[in-house]
Design brief:
The protein has about 50 residues and is of the alpha+beta class. The protein is built from one helix and two strands, in the order ββα.
Length: about 50
């Protein structure tokens, strides 16, 4: 069984660059990299149990 984990922040555009056959070759978030880093960390922390 495979468990998929992803920390995709809401409200931040995710850009995909595609090749001629429309296969993804690169993806990145559009915006201030520090804010994006903090948003990803915030999403990751939502699933953690509080001690």
């Amino acid at each position: 069984r495979v468990l998929f984990r992803s920390n995709i922040p809401t409200g931040i555009p995710l850009i995909y660059e595609l090749d001629e056959e429309l296969k993804p070759i690169k993806h990145y978030y559009l915006g201030d990299q520090e804010k994006i880093k903090n948003a990803i960390a915030s999403v990751a922390n939502q699933g953690k149990a509080k001690k």
